[in-house]
Write a structure and sequence with these properties.
homodimer; about 525 residues; 6-stranded mixed beta sheet; 15 strands; globular; EC 5.3.1.9 (chains A, B); cytoplasm (chains A, B); gluconeogenesis (chains A, B); monosaccharide binding (chains A, B)
């Protein structure tokens, strides 16, 4: 059994803290030493990706200290306990089994007599069979027409991950003849969100998936009612159009309002649920079950790498360790995620949830306040768009923001033009390479306005193309990074009690059970 | 003439710094005192909006100190100099005239014999006339068919602001019968961005606006070539479909490749250019010139309020001052922008650019390093989506993030449903009211996991509905806030030298003129 300890009780952390400011990357990344670092500080990931940390503020001494920290905090042991079914989510007394849904290699996890791996796989198979019947025209609308659109109704973890993955593969699927149905997403309780989506589709030929693990998410139930209302007004029977993705014990699972229901359970948290039916139904319908299976395979291969105790061969753990060095030793409060791929447009928003909701905690897994900072602020937009936006501050602002680049050698659609002797894709790649060096090394100038101090650390994940496998590996990399950081900070990365108070107060506002400032704001908003 | 001074040389800033941690909003916002604050700490904005700062860490003493700071730093005088045509952009030796494009009240600004206000208005009128002819079918494609789609090709300031405004009013325009043409946007040099947009439209019935002030933006020229290539391949003459929005001296203005050209100049920076033809052409085409004029009117009314020397009657200046108190006294490094309106989906991305590119500087307007922090990290997503994502960290993380809410009493499309006795819009409003109190007051609990420390400051801008006028006022509010903060920090908010180095290095990569780490990364990316 691993021992759970606060970060600041570890001797290895004290040693690491002594290495504050050790590496000057302006120097380290200059000249031939820089090239040597690029070659050496490079770790293979799954699906042909590579994690390159040459431009991070590390050297062999810092890496050795990080290795000691990984060992003392028993990161791999804790990961093994997690995927073998230990109660890692202490607050809610739950297991954490999203790895299991994508081919986990450890012991079988049996809960109340149920083999959980078989359960997750059986639901994936159910989604696959259903999708195949829809694609084949065996399941149709009442008029016998094929369904052309699938709409996911969910919020937070039931929305951001599946939406980011859909956007990431939409063009790839079109270019590779696996595009089956258009997907749309309704999340916000703002009625204009649902109305705009409904205005943009043919509801008679659409399937709607109501996604809520608890079956009680107010936004999602509200939007479900909104959609049902629209179906009825269009003269359609909602039962022919509505699907549910929920837990077997939820209110949604009890009704017979759905054409089909798909199940998950409490052991896969919302922000990790792309690997469950939360992602599986919509993505199998949109791209076919085979593409969805390839995403899971890429993720599973990355999960496998995360078991390596050698930090230089474990990109997920290494990324986590470097992040904790930046956060708790170097003192940087934020991290930017910058994918140089339009396909990864919404991937930063997904990571923002996954990271900030997992590790934005002030108490340890035993409920005791911690004396150090935990999860950073995560934000980002795709490059090169960001270059023409907030990069000014990243280059010349007063704060240092560690950067996490992602780049690919090839685009997805294969269409390109040559301008001034180079393709768009070459320009895209040239920009990300240039940015890494500009941030790391900076540049002096007589004009102080044009001076770049450099010393702004970044890593890059480089791949060949955004494919189902490489996307799955990327997803799992960040999920595992966040998990390892949770272990390092000794927080419970798998609950989210911080979202409850707002819900309670909103219910009171709607019941007009308020006083003081809450009543005053409610009055200003005419509620 | 105003005197330009660093923040830390001001006696009023020293006094303000003594007020660190003065207001405990857990107490201040509790009970009837909280209701009193909501009533008192409320400043009218233009177009029926209100800026409410009851839940900020201020009281009358802090506000008096902020008023002294505003006076000593001569904020209103500097604004007056700006709109009267002083060379505020010291780095580039330029005026800053975006206010002039939307009815500025000061002296005429004559540059090289040209009345700049007349120039901007004449270009707006040209865009209006052009749009009317397109809508009336007087300007058509070669086959005599009406144009149905307009595509903006631009990046950064030529993209984010106009795109955010388009998304903000798309549904409003549809509900109010002013929707004329669909707009799309191509920005990223990733060829998949342009290809996906082209795949989604009928190019034969589309107009494309090439937007680049300098006429040399590599991404935009590349995407222009990409689009022209597609037009030619479709058997169309690009000249019948391409428009330019650029400066009169740019290479784009010289060619005769465009059906029509619209002009701006160097005195309106990219991130402030929604009020120039950068926003004017696409929005006039999409919604009609009258709607665009209404946006400018809302902005102009807000600009007018920004002249008031009484900080309690100047919402833009007050917001700026509170932000500097949070950044430089309280020590908070980030700010989240959280609009409770799906229509404002991309407004945070626009503000992220406008703020971080303007004030992410380490030298003052004379090029001397400053000894204090300047622009914060800005990020955000619409509520209630964010509640199910990163709010966990905002509520219970170890860092405090000041929050900027925006909320509206009414939705845009007017379609809504009642579930559990309340409409979606009421639920949306109830949530934002609840969040303000949850963040400010927190809640104790026996279970430390469910404990909320509170003390997390927020403001809210409340309006009736996202309309052209209120959107213009909102835009101007933040532009002016950023301008005042630049004055407070004594930085030049109107240049962006920090984006240059990456461009230079990218050009070297494409020319294979690299060595060391830059060559190594280029090789890894197969450039």
């Amino acid at each position: 059994m691993a021992t759970w300890k606060n970060l600041d009780t570890l001797a290895s952390f004290d040693k690491l803290a002594e290495l504050k400011g050790r590496v000057n990357i302006v120097e380290a990344m200059s000249g031939e030493n820089g090239a040597k670092r690029v070659a050496e500080y490079n770790t293979p990931m799954a699906a042909g990706l590579n994690y390159n940390y040459a431009a991070k503020e590390v050297d062999d001494t810092v890496l050795d200290a990080l290795a000691d920290l990984a060992e003392e905090q028993q990161l791999v042991e804790k990961y093994e306990e997690l995927y073998n079914g230990a109660i890692i989510n202490t607050g809610e007394g739950r297991r954490v089994l999203h790895h299991l849904a994508r081919r986990q290699q450890g012991d079988p996890v049996i809960v109340d007599g149920v083999d959980k791996r078989k359960f997750y796989v059986s639901q994936q198979e159910k989604a696959a069979e259903f999708a195949k019947k829809v694609h084949a025209g065996e399941i149709t609308n009442a008029a016998g027409e094929k369904f052309t659109t699938v709409v996911q109704i969910g919020i937070g973890g039931s929305d951001l991950g599946p939406r980011a993955l859909y956007i990431a593969l939409e063009n790839w699927a079109k270019a590779n003849d696996t595009f089956k149905m258009e997907a749309k997403f309704i999340s916000n309780v703002d009625p204009d969100d649902a109305a705009a989506v409904l205005n943009s589709i043919d509801v008679s030929r659409s399937l709607f998936i109501v996604v809520s693990k608890s079956g009680t998410t107010l936004e999602t139930l509200t939007n479900e009612a909104f959609v049902k209302d629209a179906l009825v007004k269009a003269g359609l029977d909602p039962k022919n159009h509505m699907l549910a993705a929920t837990s077997e014990t939820s209110p949604l699972a009890q009704g017979d309002d759905y054409l089909e229901s798909f199940f998950m359970d409490d052991f896969i948290g919302g922000r990790y649920s792309s690997s469950s039916v939360v992602g599986g139904v919509v993505l199998s319908l949109a791209f076919g079950p085979d593409v969805y299976a390839r995403i899971l395979n890429g993720a599973a291969d990355e999960d496998e790498l995360a078991k390596n105790k050698d930090i230089r061969k474990n990109p997920d753990m290494l990324d986590a360790l470097i992040g904790v060095y930046e956060r708790n030793v170097q003192g940087y409060p934020t991290t930017a995620v910058l994918p140089y791929s339009q396909a990864l447009n919404r991937f930063p928003a997904h990571l923002q949830q996954c990271d900030m909701e997992s590790n934005g905690k002030s108490v340890n897994r035993d409920g005791e306040p911690v004396n150090y900072v935990t999860g950073p602020i995560i934000f980002g937009e795709p490059g090169t768009n960001g270059q023409h936006s907030f990069y000014q501050l990243l280059h010349q602002g007063t704060d240092i923001v560690p950067l996490q680049f992602v780049g690919y050698r090839k685009n997805q659609l294969g269409v390109d033009v040559e301008i001034q002797g180079t393709t768009s894709q070459q320009k895209l790649c040239a920009n990300v390479a240039a940015q890494i060096i500009a941030f790391a090394c900076g540049k002096d100038d007589e004009n102080p306005n044009k001076r770049f101090a450099g010393g702004r650390p970044s890593s890059i994940i480089i791949g060949d193309q955004v494919t189902p496998e490489s996307l799955g590996a990327l997803l799992a990399h960040f999920e595992n990074k966040i998990m390892f950081q949770g272990f390092l900070w000794n927080v419970n990365s798998f609950d989210q009690e911080g979202v409850q108070l707002g819900k309670v107060l909103a219910t009171r506002v709607l019941a007009h059970d308020t006083d003081g400032a809450l009543k005053a704001f409610s009055d200003l908003l005419d509620i």
